[in-house]
């Protein structure tokens, strides 16, 4: 895709969601790490409801490992996969205490070695907590990138990330990540995207296909 086409997409999405931001509530890097870990296969809204009380009770890594695993499970049981996540949290907190003085490491390659922290989580943490440009590819970012031909249909999550990093100016990586999430979450939804009112319909292969199908169905219904 040509640079001018990428610029058009970025500017258009930016006009739609100029104030896009991380919607996970947190006040420091440690809380953000816990919140992103909890958000796997779970909505940010649900995570925020749980962490509202969780972050009042648990302030430090030591707090999380000072309670029985069953107690932590109970505190996050509204979250999907809560048992596994509780294990990851306690293991992660033990490592932070033993190896990093209770602090979340700032280096991406160290973050991804922590239990429950994958590449996406590490990208979210370094970009939002430490100001390092990064593009975290979640389900929304992946869907939008592929629909707008910023990535290939069969590309892996890592391939999508690399293509976005190459196409988007580095100083816009973090902002673009947030805007793509907002665009995918509130406009270009998985099941009912707003193709009929989308300002990017002219460059969206998925939108064109959906609109063409809609026209055919409408025509058939009138015959």
UniProtKB/TrEMBL annotation:
Cofactor(s) needed by this chain: [4Fe-4S] cluster
GO molecular function annotation: 4 iron, 4 sulfur cluster binding; class I DNA-(apurinic or apyrimidinic site) endonuclease activity; DNA binding; DNA N-glycosylase activity; metal ion binding
GO biological process, one term: base-excision repair, AP site formation
PROSITE patterns: ENDONUCLEASE_III_1 (PS00764), ENDONUCLEASE_III_2 (PS01155)
Domain of life: Bacteria
Residues noted as binding [4Fe-4S] cluster in the record, renumbered to the chain: 188, 195, 198, 204
Domain HhH-GPD: 38-186
Catalytic activity: 2'-deoxyribonucleotide-(2'-deoxyribose 5'-phosphate)-2'-deoxyribonucleotide-DNA = a 3'-end 2'-deoxyribonucleotide-(2,3-dehydro-2,3-deoxyribose 5'-phosphate)-DNA + a 5'-end 5'-phospho-2'-deoxyribonucleoside-DNA + H(+)
Keywords carried by this UniProt record: 4Fe-4S, DNA damage, DNA repair, DNA-binding, Endonuclease, Glycosidase, Hydrolase, Iron, Iron-sulfur, Lyase, Metal-binding, Nuclease
EC code(s) of this entry: 4.2.99.18
Pfam families: EndIII_4Fe-2S (PF10576), HHH (PF00633), HhH-GPD (PF00730)
InterPro entries (alphabetical): DNA_glycosylase, Endonuclease-III-like_CS2, Endonuclease3_FeS-loop_motif, Endouclease-III_FeS-bd_BS, HhH-GPD_domain, HhH_base_excis_C, HhH_motif, Nth
Cofactor binding, per record: Binds 1 [4Fe-4S] cluster.
Known role: DNA repair enzyme that has both DNA N-glycosylase activity and AP-lyase activity. The DNA N-glycosylase activity releases various damaged pyrimidines from DNA by cleaving the N-glycosidic bond, leaving an AP (apurinic/apyrimidinic) site. The AP-lyase activity cleaves the phosphodiester bond 3' to the AP site by a beta-elimination, leaving a 3'-terminal unsaturated sugar and a product with a terminal 5'-phosphate.
Family to which the UniProt record says this protein belongs: Belongs to the Nth/MutY family.
UniProt protein name: Endonuclease III
Organism: Paenibacillus riograndensis SBR5
């Amino acid at each position: 895709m040509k640079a001018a086409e990428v610029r058009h997409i970025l500017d258009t999405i930016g006009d739609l969601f100029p104030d896009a931001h991380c919607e996970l509530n947190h006040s420091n890097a440690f809380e953000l790490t816990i919140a992103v870990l909890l958000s796997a296969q779970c909505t940010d809204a649900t995570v925020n409801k749980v962490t509202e009380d969780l972050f009042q009770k648990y302030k430090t890594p030591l707090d999380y490992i000072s309670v029985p695993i069953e107690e932590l499970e109970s505190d996050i049981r509204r979250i999907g996969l809560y048992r596994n996540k509780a294990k990851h949290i306690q293991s992660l907190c033990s490592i932070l205490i033993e190896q990093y003085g209770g602090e979340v490491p700032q280096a991406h390659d160290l973050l991804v070695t922590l239990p429950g922290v994958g590449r996406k989580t590490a990208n979210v943490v370094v970009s939002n907590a430490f100001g390092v440009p990064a593009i975290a590819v979640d389900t929304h970012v992946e869907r939008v990138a592929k629909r707008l031909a910023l990535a290939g249909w069969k590309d892996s999550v890592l391939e999508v990330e690399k293509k976005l990093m190459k196409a988007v100016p580095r100083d816009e990586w973090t902002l673009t990540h947030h805007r793509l999430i907002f665009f995918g979450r509130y406009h270009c939804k998985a099941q009912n995207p707003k193709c009929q009112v989308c300002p990017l319909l002219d460059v969206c292969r998925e939108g064109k296909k959906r609109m063409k199908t809609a026209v055919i169905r409408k025509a058939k219904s009138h015959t």
